């Protein structure tokens, strides 16, 4: 049943082809079976957690994974720390360092992350991308988006100079990526490069843009990249369809990208990742300042926007079962052109390659989906100690405040325990005392992980009132693949630390 | 003018070369007149000069009371030197003195006046700079003086050792005269025109009625009088206390030495110039074929151990040869011929010194019609002539006729008059006359830590380096390298170049521009003005040139003018309620403005208005900078978005009733906090704690000064004086000629507005000067327009925003354009006008501005983000 595109080699790591098998398109069952699966599992639990799991787990691989026995603490550490990454900035801006980590639930993981410094302007870009329908779109977007953003930040004269340098043997570098271990395979690389050069050319032709606006710059970058993804997927004038790019266009990705330059923090956000600021109040308690609001059906503004964008008679179908056209949970995303392309393209191309059912029901007035980001501005103060950007895999299981407290206490080398809850009724006082003493012991512990993202994952999965419960952790990490996705989603976390001294003294 | 009259009167029937032959027409020992218009206490040279100038002006109902006999105080002593090479205000007085003595000589009195000139030596480079700075402003203002080489110096004075001399200044018009004879001649001339002298009469008390002089009680009876002039020299301070209320005259005698050698041979001719060897603290003049050598020792001794200056003071003087010998050696080193004198005759000639080394003149704040002329600081002859004229005219006109602000008796507070304070301070005042006075960097050593803000100790631990104004310790700048537990930082040695602590000032500025700075401004004078009804409004309307009938809760900046339109005060008035105001004036005005306001209150007989000096009740903190608003909002838990020039009482931290005023003295965004002093520490600590996240930092008053200069904000006693008007100072916006109330000076200002002004305050950017290498302007530098002298710099500083040195100064019409009646913008900004400022002999071109040039990098970047382009890296493209 599963149709794979084994030749869709999009991305290549330094040594070997890493993702050749990863982009999968489940041509029929994924869309067919969706309804069934959905119904079955919603009845099982209608928390949003599981709902999202459901949506995603129909992509899970059929390759059976050996069910692991209980993991040893070392094995747990190895699993948790496999994708750790830390970078410290020495250039003296407002960003001191960042910690990042990922834990897969899907195999392969559908989340990606990307961090880079802009080279021609000041500022750092940090983002998390949560793919669906496979990780292809997230992979592609995370690798290309920052170039689009960085060029939108360039003033006209610098943009022209940059454009000119693209013609030379050694073009100027726009960004300095970190933790970037993969690169595109040659043919898509050239295709992507051409799209980008076209974009820079268009930008530089725009003429002098008076009154720079960060919101517009970020929107331009997001929308243009999404347009390019579409263009690249459609048949070239010769009529040939590039299955690689088409598969990217069939998958989708939400994203949350922060641009930090001095005290200026901008977050461009599409979908249901979240960015939360850790603020230390003057009474030394941690406050979680949630910067983003998920673009899903719980976001009334989003729902209103979508309903307004379509004829009145669609208002019952455009959002259905808490999903866009009854299928897609995030209300904004990159890719997912099945919700964007015109009906003609859908018939000519999508149906041809993926069958009738690949067209969503009630598909009358596309586009239904957009990659236009919501841009949030926040001026950093010295009380803003760090920013956590994470995919919903994290936010589904632990609250923003808990996340902030965990990272905050981790900063000061302390552990945080979950709020105390009595496990059962009618406990005796000495039992409670026992509990409290145990808890007191737990509080003495030092965090096990140096990386705050790892610390978060460990606590999110294994945290209890007394400290980390190894059993719980081990169990969650050794779930069989098919089941795993029910209990937890891919988790990607990046924690960006700010330099309070810098923020204290930076000009108002 | 006076002289020609006098001369015609006096010279009738007189032969040339008169000797002293005044009839001693003193009344018999125990009689005393019952009434006189003016009573002068003392018959020294100053007193006689005042009496003489009063009679010249036709005031001859004068009684001069002397406890001994004429000139029996210190007047008959003294070196007799007349030095013109001084700051302008001083020099003008001395210049007149010489002119007067010349007249006396011309009239035939042998006062031994010799215009022998003087040479002023520099042993060090800094001294030479100090001399050159003096040269620079003395030359264009009419003093003949020139810089000479050691070789020329030798020609002028062959007895000098010159091998260690960096340079010298030759002042040909300097002179010497016999102080004793002048003292007697002036007394004689005064008597001739009707002044009565009464010797051997002690003034026991000055009698007052309603704070006006009513008479004098002497050991020979009571004399009723209208005016009293205290010229009692060494006894002036004690006499001042013998009055109800007591009058403060902080002058204290210090031992002061000179020695004479007797005849030293033919080589010492009588026209040898006087020598001032500042760096050896020595002066020397020819005297009776030899030399008279005197010293301004670096650390002097207050005279007389007893609590009072004895009448038989001559018997109480000690000749301290131990102190004297090293000084004598210095003199010998300079004038080797002195070696021939084996046994110099040492004279201890104490004189009155004042806490700041300036004369004390004018009407006291405590008692009306009580005038003072004393504090001659070691040389009474020098000032006597000019001071006599100035004080006589002040008595007659009721206000000074020339700029005497530096000398006013009202520059002091009670604290200055304490004997203990004066004995401390006097020690360094003597030597200070010959010290290199580095601008803003030569603070006093003794008699410190008297008036301190409640924050003093905290600021000290935070690296504050203090300076004083009105005896108030103010943090000049903060040495942030100073760590807790280190000894408190000291000011590094002074310089005429970039101050050695400039980097701290730069940081302080930076924080005011980008974050938030706190400045302790507690020294400002504060007066509460209240009435039961609305009398206070009318009263203030009559004093202030701005319209002060403002809504409650707002603040107005206004001047208080005199009849000529000049400034008597520059202040902020805060309307606290319908019938009460809070006034903030400059630190140095505390005594003077209170006197001005009380006097005008009496004139109105508006006893319904109450004045109260509340300077010490409040601690004032300026919170300055773009982050001030957010910080204050957080601290006070309320919206601090106050409209400019308004005020609000808020709680800050746990302290209540803090007056927050939305203006700063630097021109930056921010607030002035008036804090009841008991809350001062609490609020300061709160500011530091919460302010940490706003990058808060202490800022000193020197930085604040530079900031106000760059904002072209004229300041009291520098730009704003009794002889400058708001229109001249560019403060015309604060004059409301259209308000319905009359106010003092309205007529003059009205006329000036119609006629135009003859001088105008201008802002200059200095070009082609390297602040790292060149001498800085500090004030007093002459300004040239197309090589013509047109004005003097009133204050100068470094403009942090423009990264340029800045001078403010009044421009007057150059002589070549004197057919223009007024000075206009066109004339000032004319393309043909090239401006230069002379800094220690080097002229730097400068650009004039009528208004402060916009502070480009000062414009606070809006909240809107704009990417910053990284400078183009060639290594990438290569």
TrEMBL record, chain A:
Gene Ontology, cellular component aspect: mitochondrion
Annotated PPM-type phosphatase domain residues: 95-498
Keyword terms: Hydrolase, Metal-binding, Protein phosphatase
Gene3D superfamilies referenced in this protein's UniProt entry, alphabetically: PPM-type phosphatase domain
Pfam families for this protein: PP2C
A GO term for molecular function: metal ion binding
Family: Belongs to the PP2C family.
Protein name in the entry: PPM-type phosphatase domain-containing protein
Automatic annotation (TrEMBL), chain B:
Matching Pfam families: DAO (PF01266), FAO_M (PF16350), GCV_T (PF01571), GCV_T_C (PF08669)
Residue ranges of domain FAD dependent oxidoreductase in the record: 38-394
Superkingdom, natural source: Eukaryota
InterPro entries reported in the protein's UniProt record: FAD-dep_OxRdtase, FAD/NAD-bd_sf, FAO_M, GcvT/YgfZ/DmdA, GcvT/YgfZ_C, GcvT_C, GCVT_N, TrmE/GcvT-like
Domain FAD dependent oxidoreductase central residues, every copy: 397-453
Residue ranges of every copy of the Aminomethyltransferase C-terminal domain listed in the record: 759-847
Residues in GCVT N-terminal domain copies: 455-739
One CC-aspect GO term: mitochondrion
Record-linked PANTHER family: AMINOMETHYLTRANSFERASE, PYRUVATE DEHYDROGENASE PHOSPHATASE REGULATORY SUBUNIT, MITOCHONDRIAL-LIKE
Similarity comment: family membership: Belongs to the GcvT family.
Protein name, entry field: Pyruvate dehydrogenase phosphatase regulatory subunit, mitochondrial
Source organism of this protein record: Ignelater luminosus
């Amino acid at each position: 049943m599963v149709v794979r595109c084994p030749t869709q080699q999009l991305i290549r790591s330094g040594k070997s082809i890493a993702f050749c098998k990863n982009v999968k398109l489940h041509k029929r069952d994924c869309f067919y079976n969706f309804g069934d699966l959905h119904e079955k599992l919603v009845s099982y639990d209608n928390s949003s957690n599981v709902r999202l799991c459901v949506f995603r787990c129909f992509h899970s691989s059929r390759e059976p994974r050996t069910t692991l026995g209980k993991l040893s603490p070392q094995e747990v550490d190895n699993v948790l720390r496999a994708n750790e990454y830390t970078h410290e900035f020495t250039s003296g801006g407002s960003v001191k360092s960042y910690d990042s980590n990922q834990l897969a639930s899907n195999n392969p993981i559908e989340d990606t992350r990307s961090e880079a410094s802009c080279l021609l302007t000041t500022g750092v870009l940090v983002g998390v991308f949560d793919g669906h329908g496979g990780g292809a779109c997230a992979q592609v977007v995370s690798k290309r988006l920052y170039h689009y953003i960085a060029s939108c930040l360039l003033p006209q004269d610098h943009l022209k100079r940059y454009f000119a340098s693209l013609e030379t043997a050694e073009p100027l570098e726009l960004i300095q990526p970190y933790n970037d271990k993969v690169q595109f395979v040659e043919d898509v690389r050239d295709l992507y490069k051409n799209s980008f050069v076209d974009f820079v050319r268009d930008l530089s032709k725009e003429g002098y843009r008076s009154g720079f606006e960060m919101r517009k710059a970020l929107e331009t970058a997001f929308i243009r990249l999404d347009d390019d993804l579409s263009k690249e997927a459609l048949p070239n004038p010769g009529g040939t369809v590039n299955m690689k790019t088409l598969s990217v266009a069939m998958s989708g990705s939400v994203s949350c990208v922060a641009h930090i330059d001095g005290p200026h923090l901008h977050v461009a956000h599409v979908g249901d990742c979240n960015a939360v600021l850790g603020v230390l109040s003057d009474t030394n308690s941690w406050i979680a300042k949630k910067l983003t609001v998920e673009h899903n059906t719980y976001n009334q503004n989003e729902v209103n926007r979508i309903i307004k964008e379509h004829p009145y008679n669609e208002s019952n179908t455009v959002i259905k079962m808490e999903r866009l056209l009854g299928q897609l949970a995030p209300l904004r995303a990159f890719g997912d052109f099945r919700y964007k392309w015109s009906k003609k393209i859908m018939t000519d191309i999508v149906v041809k390659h993926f069958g009738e059912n690949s067209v969503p029901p009630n598909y009358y007035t596309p586009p239904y989906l957009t990659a236009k980001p919501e841009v949030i501005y926040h001026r950093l103060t010295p009380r803003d100690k760090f920013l956590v950007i994470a995919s919903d895999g994290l936010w589904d299981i632990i609250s923003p405040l808990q996340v902030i407290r965990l990272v905050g206490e981790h900063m000061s080398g302390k552990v945080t325990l979950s709020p105390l809850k009595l496990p059962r009724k009618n406990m005796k006082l000495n039992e409670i005392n026992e509990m409290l003493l145990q808890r007191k012991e737990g509080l003495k512990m030092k965090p096990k992980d140096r990386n705050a993202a790892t610390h978060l994952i460990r606590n999110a999965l294994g945290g209890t009132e007394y400290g980390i419960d190894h059993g719980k952790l081990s169990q969650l990490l050794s779930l069989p693949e098919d089941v795993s996705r029910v209990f937890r989603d891919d988790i990607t976390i990046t924690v960006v630390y700010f330099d309070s001294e810098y923020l204290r003294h930076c000009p108002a | 003018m006076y002289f020609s009259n006098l001369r015609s009167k006096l010279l009738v029937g007189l032969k040339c070369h008169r000797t002293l032959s005044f009839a001693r027409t003193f009344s018999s020992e125990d009689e005393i007149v019952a009434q006189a218009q003016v009573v002068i206490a003392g018959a020294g040279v100053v007193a006689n000069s005042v009496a003489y100038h009063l009679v010249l002006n036709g005031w001859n109902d004068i009684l001069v009371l002397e406890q001994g006999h004429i000139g029996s105080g210190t007047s008959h002593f003294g070196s007799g030197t007349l030095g013109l090479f001084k700051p302008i205000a001083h020099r003008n007085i001395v210049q007149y003195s010489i002119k007067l003595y010349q007249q006396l000589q011309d009239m035939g009195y042998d006062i031994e006046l010799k215009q022998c000139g003087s040479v002023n030596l520099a042993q060090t480079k800094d001294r030479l700079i100090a001399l050159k700075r003096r040269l620079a402003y003395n030359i264009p203002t009419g003093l003949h003086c020139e810089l000479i080489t050691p070789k020329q110096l030798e020609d002028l004075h062959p007895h000098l050792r010159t091998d260690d001399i960096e340079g010298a200044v030759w002042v040909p018009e300097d002179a010497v005269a016999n102080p004793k004879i002048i003292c007697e001649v002036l007394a004689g001339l005064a008597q001739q025109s009707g002044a009565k002298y009464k010797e051997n009469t002690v003034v026991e008390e000055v009698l007052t009625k309603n704070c006006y002089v009513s008479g004098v009680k002497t050991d020979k009876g009571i004399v009723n009088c209208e005016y009293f002039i205290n010229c009692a020299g060494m006894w002036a301070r004690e006499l001042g206390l013998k009055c109800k209320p007591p009058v403060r005259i902080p002058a204290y005698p210090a031992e002061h030495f000179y020695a004479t050698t007797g005849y030293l041979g033919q080589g010492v001719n009588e026209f040898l110039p006087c020598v001032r060897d500042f760096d050896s603290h020595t002066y020397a003049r020819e005297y009776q074929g030899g030399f008279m050598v005197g010293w301004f020792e670096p650390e002097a001794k207050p005279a007389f151990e007893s609590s009072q200056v004895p009448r038989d003071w001559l018997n109480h003087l000690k000749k301290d040869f131990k102190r004297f010998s090293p000084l004598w050696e210095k003199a010998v080193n300079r004038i080797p011929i002195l070696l021939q004198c084996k046994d110099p005759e040492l004279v201890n000639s104490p004189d009155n010194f004042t806490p700041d080394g300036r004369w004390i003149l004018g009407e006291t704040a405590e008692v009306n019609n009580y005038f003072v002329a004393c504090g001659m600081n070691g040389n009474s002859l020098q000032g006597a002539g000019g001071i006599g004229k100035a004080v006589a005219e002040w008595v007659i006109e009721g206000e000074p006729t020339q700029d005497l602000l530096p000398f006013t008796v009202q520059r002091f507070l009670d604290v200055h008059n304490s004997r203990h304070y004066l004995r401390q301070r006097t020690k360094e005042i003597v030597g200070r006359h010959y010290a290199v006075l580095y601008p803003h960097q030569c603070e006093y050593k003794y008699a410190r830590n008297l008036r301190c803000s409640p924050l003093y100790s905290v600021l000290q631990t935070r690296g504050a380096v203090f300076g004083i104004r009105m005896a108030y310790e103010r943090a000049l700048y903060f040495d942030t390298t100073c760590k807790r537990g280190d000894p408190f930082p000291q000011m590094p040695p002074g310089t005429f170049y970039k101050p050695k602590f400039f980097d701290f000032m730069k940081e302080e500025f930076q924080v005011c521009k980008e974050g938030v700075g706190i400045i302790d401004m507690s020294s400002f004078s504060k007066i509460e003005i209240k009435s039961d009804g609305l009398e206070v409004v009318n009263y203030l309307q009559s004093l202030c040139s701005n319209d002060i009938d403002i809504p409650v809760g707002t603040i107005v900046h206004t001047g208080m003018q005199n009849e000529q339109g000049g400034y008597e005060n520059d202040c902020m008035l805060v309307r606290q309620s319908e019938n009460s105001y809070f006034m903030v004036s400059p630190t140095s005005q505390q005594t003077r403005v209170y006197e001005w306001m009380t006097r005008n209150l009496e004139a109105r007989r508006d006893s319904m208005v109450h004045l109260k000096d509340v300077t010490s009740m409040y601690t004032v903190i300026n919170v300055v900078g773009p982050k001030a608003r957010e910080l204050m909002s957080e601290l006070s838990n309320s919206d601090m978005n106050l409209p400019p020039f308004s005020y609000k009482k808020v709680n800050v931290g746990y302290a209540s009733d803090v007056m927050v005023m939305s203006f700063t003295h630097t021109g930056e965004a921010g607030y002035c906090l008036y804090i009841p002093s008991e809350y001062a520490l609490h609020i300061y600590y709160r500011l530091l704690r919460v302010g940490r996240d706003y990058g808060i930092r202490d800022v000193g008053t020197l930085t604040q000064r530079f900031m106000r200069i760059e904002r072209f904000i004229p300041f009291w006693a520098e730009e704003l004086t009794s002889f400058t008007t708001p229109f001249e100072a560019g403060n015309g916006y604060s004059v409301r000629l259209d308000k319905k109330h009359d106010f003092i000076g309205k007529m003059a200002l009205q006329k000036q507005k119609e006629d135009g002004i003859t001088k105008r305050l201008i802002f200059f950017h200095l070009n082609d000067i390297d602040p790292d290498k060149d001498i800085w302007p500090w004030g007093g530098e002459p300004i040239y327009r197309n090589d013509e002298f047109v004005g003097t710099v009133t204050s100068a500083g470094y403009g942090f925003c423009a990264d340029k040195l800045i001078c403010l100064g009044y421009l007057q019409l150059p002589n070549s354009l004197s057919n223009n009646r007024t000075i206009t913008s066109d004339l000032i900004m004319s393309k043909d006008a090239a401006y230069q400022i002379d800094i220690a002999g080097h002229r730097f071109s400068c650009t004039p501005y009528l208004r402060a040039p916009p502070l480009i990098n000062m414009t606070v970047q809006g909240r809107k983000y704009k990417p910053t382009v990284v400078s183009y890296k060639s290594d990438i493209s290569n």
